[in-house]
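call fold target=Mannosyl-oligosaccharide glucosidase
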Amino acid sequence: SLRHTCEQGDGLSRYGWLMHDGENFGVQEIHDGDLFLKTEFVKRPGGEHGGDWSWRITARMEGTGSPAPLLSLFFYVATDGQGTLEPHLENKTRLAAVTGTSEELGRFTLTFLHPTVESGEDPKYASYNYLDAASPGLHRLTEVVRSSLSNRFVFSPRGKSRRRFFAVDTFRGLPGEPPRGRLLLHQVTLEPPGMVEVTFE
């Protein structure tokens, strides 16, 4: 399933903030069937745009056999009428960072770190996909992503079986609305457990 939000009635067994102060830090847990996600953010005050922050997602499966189902995490960076975004690619498929400007944030850099095992020490094998698309508006980003998915991609860690998965591929536009901005999307596909971190400066 493709989820962009946690909503009552979605069949999630549990989700919510464990602790937060509404501004500088927060810890949230999401239980979706056998999938457990924990998101954590910490913000450091200062700078011209309200402070720098980092965000970490930890994923693990509970009560499933081996191999665990593949998990794809999608990270969106989008403009809607104003601002600029510049992608910085690694090996033509991994969006390593985005630099940009906006009226509210000024100049900024968003960096996507390589996934690690749950302890955060060792690197974790992952497949990467990237989408650069004209956006018809923030309210239609889910449609943009759904219409760009393809199952032609193969997850192939060394020494393990190869598995097909859905990933963003090509976006050909949506009927009805002209582009209003730009969407850059970073997709990380891995076999849980694992951890992904994003930093904003």
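return ok
The longest helix spans residues 141-148. The longest strand covers residues 35-44.
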